[in-house]
């Protein structure tokens, strides 16, 4: 990140010679431009980490580093929640590895301008099935507690929005989630619309932990839900800022096997794309 004004050395006087003065002014201009570019890159990276995007968000890194949390996915605002985590051991952090593949975007990002109309029956039971290349993951959706979220998820599933989309983010340190639902694979894509948060007072997440088996929305601040969601495969310390809208009823073993392969993390903190490609071949949702 570019240093702030208090860290930047003071510029000396300009030379009197016109040509030297011109060159010095040009040099200082290029230096300022480079500093601004570096700052923009740093800010973009921060927004991406806040998102996906999310997921998702790292409440606290294993070594005790405090991290900023808001999540995914376009950022409108960023809160600075902090949480401490207990030190982890090498045993529960997969060895660093490289993901030797490129995520291919699916060309359906931003397909809708507004949230879909409410068509689900909030008194009914809804289930979903995510068929990953590694195996199926089944979900029970909570339409009564998170009607807008479940309605959107069912709508997108029925539109085949998720089919062929990579799960672009895996965290294996501090929090333990697989984040999916971004057709661009960058952590900043979505369906084109956003909708409000729901179910944030659920007893399951009020204590600052999203239990293993939780399905929740990634976001980039309050009321910025879109299509990105995360699957919690191990209890994860997170503030109650991410709409929980279902539970995993089958496939936790599949998620843990994916996590065991590790994430491609440039910073060594267990937060990057899965080492092994994870693609949602199909996502279906139905009323039962």
From TrEMBL:
EC number of the protein: 5.2.1.8
Pfam families, sorted: Pro_isomerase
Residue ranges of every copy of the PPIase cyclophilin-type domain listed in the record: 135-285
Region (Disordered): 1-25, 72-118
Family per similarity comment: Belongs to the cyclophilin-type PPIase family.
Descriptive protein name: Peptidyl-prolyl cis-trans isomerase
Catalysed transformations (reactions): [protein]-peptidylproline (omega=180) = [protein]-peptidylproline (omega=0)
CDD domains, sorted: cyclophilin
InterPro entries the record matches: Cyclophilin-like_dom_sf, Cyclophilin-type_PPIase_dom, Cyclophilin_A-like
Keyword Zinc on entry: no
Compositionally biased region (Low complexity): 72-99
Bias-annotated ranges (Basic and acidic residues): 16-25
Stated role: PPIases accelerate the folding of proteins. It catalyzes the cis-trans isomerization of proline imidic peptide bonds in oligopeptides.
Molecular function GO terms recorded: peptidyl-prolyl cis-trans isomerase activity
Membrane spanning residue stretches: 49-69
Assigned keywords, A-Z: Isomerase, Membrane, Rotamase, Transmembrane, Transmembrane helix
Gene3D superfamilies (alphabetical): Cyclophilin-like
Domain of life: Bacteria
């Amino acid at each position: 990140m570019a240093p702030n004004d208090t860290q930047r050395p003071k510029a000396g006087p300009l030379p009197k010679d016109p040509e030297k003065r011109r060159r010095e002014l040009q040099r200082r201009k290029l230096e300022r431009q480079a500093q601004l570019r570096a700052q923009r890159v740093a800010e973009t990276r921060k927004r991406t980490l806040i998102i996906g995007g999310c997921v998702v968000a790292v409440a606290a890194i294993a070594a005790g580093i405090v991290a900023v949390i808001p999540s995914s996915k376009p950022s409108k605002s960023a809160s600075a929640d902090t949480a401490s985590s207990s030190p982890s051991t090498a045993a529960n952090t997969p060895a660093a590895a490289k993901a030797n593949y490129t995520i291919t975007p699916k060309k359906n990002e931003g397909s809708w301008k507004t949230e879909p109309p409410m068509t689900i029956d909030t008194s009914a039971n809804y289930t979903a099935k995510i068929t990953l290349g590694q195996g199926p993951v089944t979900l029970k959706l909570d339409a009564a507690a998170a009607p807008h979220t479940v309605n959107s998820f069912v709508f997108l599933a029925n539109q085949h929005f998720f089919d062929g989309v990579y799960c672009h983010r895996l965290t294996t340190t501090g929090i333990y989630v697989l984040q999916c639902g971004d057709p661009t694979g960058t952590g900043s894509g979505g369906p084109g619309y956003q909708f409000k948060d729901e179910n944030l007072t659920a007893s399951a997440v009020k204590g600052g932990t999203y239990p293993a088996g939780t399905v929740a929305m990634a976001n980039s601040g309050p009321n910025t839900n879109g299509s990105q969601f995360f699957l919690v495969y191990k209890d994860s310390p997170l503030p109650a800022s991410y709409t929980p809208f279902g539970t995993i009823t089958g496939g936790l073993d599949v998620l843990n096997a994916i996590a065991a392969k590790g994430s491609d993390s440039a910073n060594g903190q267990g937060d990057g794309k899965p080492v092994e490609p994870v693609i949602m071949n199909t996502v279906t949702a139905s009323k039962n």
